[in-house]
Amino acid sequence: xxxxxxxxxxxxxxxxxxxxxxxxxxxxxxxxxxxxxxxxxxxxxxxxxxxxxxxxxxxxxxxxxxxxxxxxxxxxxxxxxxxxxxxxxxxxxxxxxxxxxxxxxxxxxxxxxxxxxxxxxxxxxxxxxxxxxxxxxxxxxxxxxxxxxxxxxxxxxxxxxxxxxxxxxxxxxxxxxxxxxxxxxxxxxxxxxxxxxxxxxxxxxxxxxxxxxxxxxxxxxxxxxxxxxxxxxxxxxxxxxxxxxxxxxxxxxxxxxxxxxxxxxxxxxxxxxxxxxxxxxxxxxxxxxxxxxxxxxxxxxxxxxxxxxxxxxxxxxxxxxxxxxxxxxxxxxxxxxxxxxxxxxxxxxxxxxxxxxxxxxxxxxxxxxxxxxxxxxxxxxxxxxxxxxxxxxxxxxxxxxxxxxxxxxxxxxxxxxxxxxxxxxxxxxxxxxxxxxxxxxxxxxxxxxxxxxxx
Length: 455
Known about the structure:
The chain is of the alpha/beta class. 20% of the residues lie in helices and 29% in strands.
């Protein structure tokens, strides 16, 4: 990602103190996930990639947000008195700061580093506007604030929809809320903001009119409406998820993966797919998934927290859970679940099996219906299967246990002790055949049923 080449210092103030009441959730709005991570983290990532050095998050009066965003400076907005009041809470962190100050919203997670750099570039243009506002054209502007320009296209003011006249409501150039302001001017302008409006709040947007009244220049940078979706409720969250999924799908295909039905495949923000990776329909890739080149992922798989090496074949209907590592040429087939396990080169587990807390050695074959019984109701235990072992179908391996190299486990066995290398272990009871008894059982069953029917 190309960072701004101008060496002027830059700060970002991220407003994230809104209650998000329309989300109807005990979770702060900005912590609701998009593509597997809190929405505010997407925005913070874009800010960092744009080369903005200093980041301050204005949050609610609790630790929920600061616990998630970690190293960034946070300050609480105890009273909810509007966006202008929210930015003022960051003043102590930016005292004496005269670089560029970007103001963004934690509920706008889709803004790209390229757009942020475009805003910074406009702020640093030869005419050096004191305020640069990010706007967008909308066919249905609704409750968005409107950007009011003069005949020369210079931004004169921002009018909130609730304060706009009928003529102003017809304007389709809308305010995203994002702006970049000369740090030497920002807090002086905010101190002049009044709350004599319909909401009784201190609007950040009022600084544009105040700046123009001082003879300062204000400018607009236009972005796309999809990029500037503000998330206020669950419907907005769903729209934003689709936007970010489309971005991730495009990135995967540009990287050489084949998505057979892109709209049905879901990625996480950090999914890594190699080239020549066909991915079937209805696949979900959760956080922390790394897939090497020439891997095949068949339909209806759910994968998270897993590293898959070259040549592996997954699915259909496989579930790979966190802590799983698959070496080269591993085959994990239909209705197989793997959790916290290492599968070495060439392992085959093709049907109806659960492998948890285990190591499966190279070229081992695990038959259908096998279970590593890793949990005793109190603790998890480890199953260690050496190279070349053959585990017969419908076997239960009671951990902790070790199956030696080249050992064979007879189908239907329950193994409770270690099996030495090269050994055959069978725990079936002796089969007994009672000739003619099947016909007698069926006759007795029918007689019993008929007596009940007659009664």
